[in-house]
Write a structure and sequence with these properties.
The chain has 94 residues and is α+β, with helices and mostly antiparallel strands. The protein has one domain: GMP Synthetase, Chain A, domain 3 (2-Layer Sandwich). It contains 4 helices and 3 strands. It has a 3-stranded mixed beta sheet with strand order 1-2-3. A hairpin with a 2-residue loop joins strand 1 and strand 2. The longest helix has 19 residues.
Length: 94
Amino acid sequence: MEQHEWNLKDLLRRVASRDKLRDKLVQSRLSEAWEVLYPQFKSYTGALQFNRGKLVIELSSAALRTELMYNKELIIKQLNDQLGEECIQEIALR
């Protein structure tokens, strides 16, 4: 019988490849990444919701919402870099 070597990270990726589980894992990592990259927005940020490549960010400040709308592509790039994979395809600000 042939032995296969699996590391935990690869095994979790295989299991998480199912959309629902993967989205839950990404959402939890996104919350951490958001706080690391944008701690100055913490008091204005409500829930972060991730589903099938779309990140929805709830904001309590209209001025911040406007500012972030102009920087969506940069935010997507920075968050994906922080996560180490291309998870986010689009952002909706509410």
